Amino acid sequence: MFRNEDVTSQDFTVKFEELKQKFDEREAVQLDSEYHRQMKQYIERLYEETCGNAAFDDERMDEVRDAEMSNLNRLQKLKNASSYKKEKHKAKEQSEDWG
């Protein structure tokens, strides 16, 4: 939603509240990975700054758009780094089995 500049603060708030409600309805699963811990913190922080803030408007949405896309990119890199390590180790184990 941050990439699409046509999304207004009202559209964002409605959609994010809907997604957060679905997230909260799910039973919490304890995951020890750094990615999952930071993603949960990100969701909680963003929810408070947007949906929990009466002063959140289109102007504020435009101000935080680039910063939040950067934060999401950082989280995506963290997620990919952990899966990359797994793939790397899988390839190593396969080559060991071959000979």
User: What composes the largest sheet?
Assistant: none
SSE pattern = HHH
In percent terms, what proportion of residues is strand? under 5%
Report the span from N to C terminus: 49 Å
Fold and architecture overview:
There is one protein chain. The model has no long low-confidence stretch (mean pLDDT 84). The protein has 99 residues and is an all-alpha fold. It starts with 8 loop residues before the first helix and ends with a helix. 2% of the residues are buried. It contains 3 helices and no strands. It is 76% helix and 0% strand.
Q: How are the SSEs ordered, and which strands pair?
A:
Blueprint: H1 9-25, H2 34-50, H3 58-98
Helix pairs in contact: 2-3
Concise structural overview:
This protein is mostly helical. The protein contains 3 helices and no strands. The N and C termini lie far apart (49 Å).
Annotation keywords:
single chain; 99 residues
